[in-house]
Amino acid sequence: MPTHKISCYILDGSFTYRGVDYSTLHHTLTKADCILPRWAWKRVADNDPEIKQTAVWSTLKAQGFLIPAGTDEFQLFLEWRGDHARNFNEVKSRVLYTRKCDNDCAYCSLMPHLRRGFHMSAETARLMDRFHAGFIAEKRPLSARDAFLGGEPFLNYGVMCDSARRRFDCCQALGIPYRFSVTTNGKHLSVARIDALLECGLETLHVSLAGRPGCMTACGPPWAASPTTRRCWATWS
Ligand code: SF4
After folding, report:
1. pTM of the full predicted structure?
2. Cα–Cα distance for residue pair 95/74, rounded to 1 Å
3. Kind of pairing, strands 143-149 and 178-184?
4. What average pLDDT does range 58-66 have in this prediction?
5. pLDDT for 81-129, tens place per residue?
6. Best residue for ligand 1 mutational test, from 101, 104, 114 (most atoms within 8 Å of Cβ)
7. Structural domains of the chain ordered from first start
8. Is any atom of ligand 1 closer than 6 Å to the C-beta of 209?
9. Which atom of ligand 1 lies nearest, measured to the CA of 150?
């Protein structure tokens, strides 16, 4: 009898690197991420006794990827929704301003054909922000926080910046603190752009450099091993 089962709230992607197939796992409730060789993930799914003795097993349990076999996951979801999705003390959203990216990281969760996709239009952004403003006005949270993502969001900088400004103005009019983060590949940053975003509530900039030197060359795009990137690492470390 299996003691554990794989949670049904996992997004499962895959990629191949140097002839090895990997699974990329994202748990939509715990927000945990994991990359495992596909053979190892299969052994986990099979409740293989040997893998149960390893740190992989205990880590996957701790992060919610593995749950006791008898767990009612729908009940779990209802409790999670009560704690998170229906808690309006802080209204949070994640916005993808584009699917496009000019990097090609091996570990990217967007399939290559999606990275050649499309930008969010200015009109769509305006409609989205109108909905967001209505929601904020109705729920009156204590604060509002957004995560701006892509693709590479700076490839659609104008739309992102206008949208941030609208959200900032809406919250300011209601006396609600507003802040946001941007996740970027770092290739399109400038002082002027950052200054403009800081005026609208930019709090955090996540820059993906495809890992530390050594790891970069193995997993990242060719430019990741460039002298500029190494200088960035030296400065930020
Ligand atoms: S920078 Fe981000 S979106 Fe672009 S390829 Fe790398 S992981 Fe994917």
Report:
1. 0.66
2. 27
3. parallel
4. 94
5. 888 777 788 999 999 999 998 877 766 767 667 667 789 999 999 999 9
6. 101
7. 4-83 (no CATH), 88-236 (3.20.20.70)
8. no
9. 3
